[in-house]
Amino acid sequence: MTFEPLLDAPIAIQIHIAAVIPAALLGAYLLARPKGTPRHRLLGKIWLALMVVTALSSFFIHQINMFFGFSPIHLLSIFVLSGCWGAIVNARKHNIEAHKRIVRSLYFGGIVGAGAFTFFPGRIMNKVAFDGDDIAPLLVAACIAVALLWLMSKEIWRRRRLT
């Protein structure tokens, strides 16, 4: 594992990573913890702000140049921005089911799904995670697997308690 590719990357990519990593961690925490509390509301606002910074910064990243500097991944950024707005509107209207659905899709589509593509060969995060050390790929994969299993088990136990 080496941070050289990230440190040598353009400022837009550094801002993007600086927002998305805490958003990923905070989002996992929020999904696993009780909802509707003052802490949840405060951390949720911070999470949404991080998601907006992540999405906006992506418009200045043009490494995959398919159409005038943009690529299909930029459509995801538009989805994230509109989803953030939808999450706020639905929370204020007390439409909690829609709020939950939007936030989960933002997290699993915008962070987990899109994040998986950043580890493809040739991408900066692939170089960060997998260059320089033979054991690093195994550790990264193990950490991601443990985090996903933990989140899924929390959700399964929560659903069992409701039925």
Automatic annotation (TrEMBL):
Entry keyword Membrane: yes
Pfam families: DUF2306
InterPro entries reported for this sequence: DUF2306_membrane
Keywords assigned by UniProt, alphabetized: Membrane, Transmembrane, Transmembrane helix
Transmembrane spans: 12-30, 42-61, 67-90, 102-120, 135-152
Keyword Metal-binding: no
Coiled coil (UniProt feature): none
Protein name: DUF2306 domain-containing protein
Species whose genome carries this gene: Rhizobium lusitanum
